[in-house]
Design brief:
It is an enzyme of class 2 (transferase). This is Threonylcarbamoyl-AMP synthase. One of its GO terms (molecular function) is L-threonylcarbamoyladenylate synthase. It catalyses: L-threonine + hydrogencarbonate + ATP = L-threonylcarbamoyladenylate + diphosphate + H2O. It is found in: Cell membrane; Cytoplasm; Mitochondrion. This protein is of the alpha/beta class. It has one domain (16-181, 188-225): DHBP synthase (Alpha-Beta Complex). It is 20% helix and 22% strand. The protein is built from 5 helices and 11 strands. It has an 11-stranded mixed sheet. Helix 5 (211-220) links the parallel strand 10 (201-206) and strand 11 (224-225). The longest helix has 11 residues, at 55-65. The termini are far apart. The model is unreliable at 1-12 (pLDDT under 50).
């Protein structure tokens, strides 16, 4: 499937609740291609997702969260091999990303000069956070969308993260669909954010789920902490 940018966002959805099962991935993809926002479970927290190539949809996520546009959003792709479409990975050891992902880790990489991401996504930054969650539902959606997903926690900015759809029930009306994956076991810990923009070293920007396991993985591969 060709990777391409989506259209400008359409009208808000009714916040229909659906189970987070494979049979509903097609409707989720349709909503994303129409520029709408959906709420989905990940391997850490519930998140708001939209087409990362749609300016209108990205702006809508900021509006829903009441978040400043200067706060960056991460992107989510379906598979590790898709990361190179959006970020620079040539400097990484061949096994590094495969050992970290899929999993509860956000890898921060330099944006590629030929990246197809919406240019207004995280303006002024030459890096991008990328996720491949260990969650089949959101990965199926990302694969089917033909684009990367902009992904952020499903909550108002500054409020506690959501591990149950009831935690952000006041925001359902702003989503086309809310996909219920039950109560997530992460204890409100988000992903571990690790900066891999420099050659031969890494920096933990935010410890989160599976922090020690993933840090040890990087050390085993010969990188040092900066």
């Amino acid at each position: 499937m060709a990777w391409k940018c989506g259209a400008i966002a359409g009208p808000l959805g009714p916040g229909l609740v659906r189970p987070a099962t494979e049979e509903f991935t097609k409707e989720a993809v349709t909503a994303l291609r129409a520029g709408k926002v959906i709420a989905v479970p990940t391997d850490t927290l519930y998140g708001f997702a939209c087409d990362a190539c749609s300016l209108g949809a990205v702006n809508r996520i900021y509006e829903i969260k009441g978040r400043q546009h200067t706060s960056p959003l991460a992107i989510c792709v379906g598979d590790v091999q898709d990361i190179g479409k959006f970020a620079v990975t040539d400097h990484l050891p061949s096994r590094l990303l495969d050992n970290l992902l899929p999993g509860p880790v956000t890898v921060v990489l330099r944006r590629g000069d030929s990246s197809i991401l919406e240019k207004s996504l995280n303006p002024g930054l030459n890096s991008i956070g990328v996720r491949v969650p260990d969650s089949n539902f959101i990965r199926l959606i990302a694969r089917g969308s033909g684009s990367a997903l902009a992904l952020t926690s499903a909550n108002l900015s500054g409020k506690p993260s959501s591990v149950d759809i009831k935690d952000f029930q006041n925001l359902w009306e702003h989503c086309a669909y809310v996909y219920d994956g039950g109560v997530l076991p992460s204890g409100r810990a988000g992903s571990t954010v690790v900066d891999l923009t420099s050659i031969g070293k890494y920096k933990i920007l935010r410890p989160g789920s599976d922090f020690y396991t993933k840090s040890d993985t990087i050390l085993v591969l010969g990188w040092r902490c900066s």
